[in-house]
Design brief:
Elements (H helix, E strand, L loop, with lengths): L11 E10 L2 H15 L3 E10 L2 H14 L5 E6 L11 H10 L8 E5 L6 H13 L4 E5 L13 E5 L1 H14 L11 H15 L5 E6 L7
Parallel strand pairs: 1-2, 1-4, 2-3, 4-5
Antiparallel strand pairs: 5-7, 6-7
Helix pairs in contact: 1-5, 2-5, 3-4, 5-6
Bound molecules: zinc ion.
Length: about 220
């Protein structure tokens, strides 16, 4: 499969990460971010979690710092919108989404999938597309009970060591999630292996994204 890179070693790449809950960005795009940093790309990241309070906010902050270790800049922003009720808080959430454009022009925006079964995720996807109309938007996957996966059409191959680091960081930083039956290394590794198989990743693993539209040249 022919691939294209967004930046090479020593080049800069600005990335906006949008996540509803404390671990979403890490699960969906954490391996991609780790890979870019490891490749020597100068990452400038604005990392926005829309709903995390108390223990979850502390976990989100520490995890983001760990995933972005080695990035050229990391601006971590945590908000406290009510978990599970994003569609009813749209008029409050939209201004905060708009605020993320100020002083920052991302080359890439990571956000949730339009077809995600979680209402908070869908709301942020919609607001991402409303707000970022001249940007490359990549929608990431979050496994869940609902079984809502579709067919990604863009892949980021991951080296096995990067995937293991992603899984290790998730389990180090999200102690509050350990009791959830889906929060399991086998879930993350299994999904990555499947996506890696689909794109023939040399390292066997990958993260999958939905790319709705883009222009080249
Ligand atoms: Zn979530």
């Amino acid at each position: 499969m022919r691939g294209f890179g967004l930046a090479g070693p020593g080049e800069s790449l600005s990335v906006l990460c949008i996540g509803a809950h404390a671990d979403d960005i890490e699960i969906g795009a954490g391996g991609t971010l780790l890979s870019w940093i490891a490749a020597g790309i100068r990452l400038h990241v604005r990392w926005c979690v829309f709903s995390a309070t108390a223990r979850r906010a502390a976990e989100a902050t520490e995890s983001a710092r760990a995933f972005l270790d080695g990035a050229s800049s990391a601006d971590i922003r945590i908000k406290d919108f009510e978990d599970g009720f994003f569609p009813y808080q749209g008029s409050d959430i939209k201004p905060w989404m708009e605020e993320q454009k100020r002083g920052f022009t991302p080359d890439v925006v990571f956000t949730h999938r339009r077809d995600d079964a979680h209402q908070d995720h869908r709301e942020l996807c919609q607001l991402s597309w409303n707000t970022f109309r001249d940007h490359l938007i990549l929608e990431y996957e979050v496994p869940k009970w609902d079984g809502d996966f579709g067919q990604p059409n863009l892949y980021m191959p991951l080296e096995p060591a990067v995937l293991e680091r992603k899984i290790g960081l998730l389990h180090t930083h999200f102690d509050s999630q350990q009791s959830k039956d889906w929060f399991d290394p086998e879930v993350f590794r299994g999904l990555a292996r499947l996506r890696g198989m689909e794109c023939r990743a040399p390292g066997r693993y990958a993260e999958g994204f939905v790319l709705r539209k883009a222009s080249i040249g």
